[in-house]
Amino acid sequence: MTLTNSRRLSALALVGGLLAVLFVAPTASAADSQIAPSSITGGIKITKVVYNPSGDERYTPNREKVYIKNVSARSKNLRGVVLSDPAGHRYRLPSYTLGSGRTVIVHSGSGTNGSGHLYARWNTAVWNNTGDTARLKSSGGILIDRCRWSGGGVSVTC
Ligand SMILES: [Ca+2]
Question: What pTM does this model have?
Answer without folding.
Answer: 0.76
